[in-house]
Amino acid sequence: DLKLQFLYFIGTLSPTSFLRMSHQRFGYGVYTAPIQIAGSSLGCYPSSLNESEEREERYSEVMSPYPTNVSTPWIRNLSFADGIAIGREVIAFGTFFSPTTDEQAKRDQLRRMLQQCVSIHCACSTVKFIGSVGIGVALPTSSIDLVVEGWSATPDAVTHIASLLRDAGHQTTQQSDNELSLNGGRVVFESDSSAERKLVHNLKRRMDQLDGAVRAVTLVVRTILSQSNLDGKEKGGLSGTAIALMVAATAATVVPISPPPACVIAGELLTEVLKVYSKWDWAKKSVALVSYNDHSRQHPDDPVSVCTPFSGEVNLAEGCKRHVQISAMLSYANLATAQWEKSDASTTEINCRGVTPLSSIVAHKDLWDRSHLIRRSFPTHPSSSDFGSSYMSSSSIGGVGNSIMTKSCSSTSLTTPSSVRRMRDT
Question: What does pTM read for this prediction?
Answer without folding.
Answer: 0.72
